[in-house]
## 1
Amino acid sequence: FFRAEAIAEFLRLAHLNPARLLLFTFFGGILAGTLLLMLPAATTDRGGAAFIDALFTSTSAICVTGLAVKDTGTFFTGFGQVVILALVQIGGLGIITFSTLYTILLGRRLGWRQEAHVRDIMETQSVPKMYTLIVGIVTGTLLFELVGSIILTLRLLPEMGLLPAAKSAVFHCVSAFCNAGFSLFPDNLIRYAGDIWVNAVIMILITLGGIGFVVIDDIKSSMGGWNPFRIRWSRLTVHTRLVLITSFWLTII
């Protein structure tokens, strides 16, 4: 069922345009998350989440809103927290990005109709550019989250120990980069309100995830490397300039 050919054939038969494809995949992701969170293994009482609670949590996670009706750190087990984090990651990356990457990892390509749909959604001019952008989005996301997780693990290590610190760091860094707002702590991050390291890591990840990879890729191309002092502002697109200027002034204000 999950082979690339089967997915492509289903999409071809369904005649899904980009808008319907996005709608269908979002509903599918929400439903899958709901069913997983209802499993006994997902909650600490081994009874599984009630349907309405699981549905709300799954919808909130995949739509990266951060709203929760159950405390993520105490109500859900490690399995349930992994499900929530996976939904957040998929929602943050975008379901189309994730599903296209899945096809690439299988060594396949989408059909020409599906490639055209995804290219329209990604707003790229060519199919090779679309695939390059998708791979860049995923690898860049994982890289930023990894670096943030390492820094946060080192900060939390003295008070939690290695495994709890790493678990907390990964969860909060993924949540921050995807702008999701989920936390494993009952008081969210209030306990770290005066901590410069925790605040810095979370704020940087929120900002990088918020401006998006189209902007980050444009900035990287204009630098000719990774030296921020070599940014050629004249080569940035209007979209990138608008995002950077607006984000800067909104943050300052």
Note: The chain has twelve helices and no strands.
## 2
Amino acid sequence: MFANLPWGDLAQALESTLFMVGFSLVVGTILATILALILVLTNEGGLLENKVVYTLLNSVVSFFRSLPFIILMTFIFPFTKFIVGTRIGVKAALVPLVVFIIPSLARLYENSLLGVDKGIIRAAKAMGANYFQIVRYFILPEAKSSMILSTTIGTIGLISASAQAGVIGAGGIGDMALTYGYERMDVPVMLATVFILVVFVQIVQFLGNYFSKRARNH
């Protein structure tokens, strides 16, 4: 049944998916962590409480997080064109994927950071730690396990979003499943792409659980 599968196309599609998800995740994780820290620090009762900054950033995060990816991708077409010079292809998909994952991860990270015991922060302040030291040596280490699980959730969401990026010619496993499986009714290719996506997600979930458990035990 699978003897005549287009293995070359499958390999290329998997490579595109890994690149889109990997690049977006790295950039998104860095920016989302910064954004989440600002939200937590400027929130009511935070170390750098600032109602104006918090309200503004919180509104922006909520707005972009509420948009389905396909709508977000269309909404920021002009921005995508400005950044990468094109609206189609893998490069064009990277911009909306990054914009998609930043607010999602920022909200998840914010919840993780808010879960840190306030007693730890008070103890750090009592020892004379400055704001940077409190964040670097107390808040982030305590929230690390939860943040790893949040990153796992975000990665799985990115995998799903990357499939929708196929509408702008970004390719990937999801796009191949639609092209071969739905449009051409090629059942073997459809099953192969579904299997690859399921395995991909399971690997991500396993690694997320593993590293989260390690972080929790240290």
Note: The chain is about 80% helix and 0% strand.
## 3
Amino acid sequence: FYRFLAFFGFVVFVRFILYHFYYTFPKFGIRELGDGAPIGQLFGTLNAVVVIILAPIVGALTQKFTAYKSVIIGTTIAALSVFLMAVNPALFRPLADGPFGSLIAWWLNLDLAGQPLNPLFPAIVLAVFIYSIGEAFYSPRLYEYPAAIAPKGQEGSYMALSMLPYFFAKFLVGPLSGILLALYCPAEGPRNSQMIWVWVGGMALITPIGLLLARRYIQVREAGRE
């Protein structure tokens, strides 16, 4: 039971990403991209489509993987994806000026009025797309793992406790979001918005690194797997 709690204690940190997309990303996007930026499409639509399509495919291809291993793989991908928004957006200028940028402008129905596409758009799209791939790996397995390791007759209790990372992440990200926005992406004044995602990605990496380093101590044999 305590190893189960330790597992989900580590998972809290990767859940920060999702809630930062809910709380921090809208303000960040509007302040960096301007009023009217299609923030909802940039995350909500793309994330939902990618996860819906990939989750069953990834599940079928990783049937022989333990849930623990799939969570490590998925959380690593998800955590690293955030750093695409932590680098200088100018690095994505070639993508913004090419066919990829044109596709983004068409998808989002952007009226550029002859102006070049902000390179932050392809950075965000790639970050969300890669994050969604990671989520397709780990999110379904977070429900499988407690059911697989629970003592007989306690599956329901373990499944209910597996929701704890959501509540802890939501509780912590609210105030943290305000602090990061005030420090690095204020409504007025100088900004260093990339640092927001350095912090978010750094905290999210605690999940896969912690699960990997503590594997021999907290991993539990999963029912149905040798």
Note: The chain is about 75% helix and 0% strand.
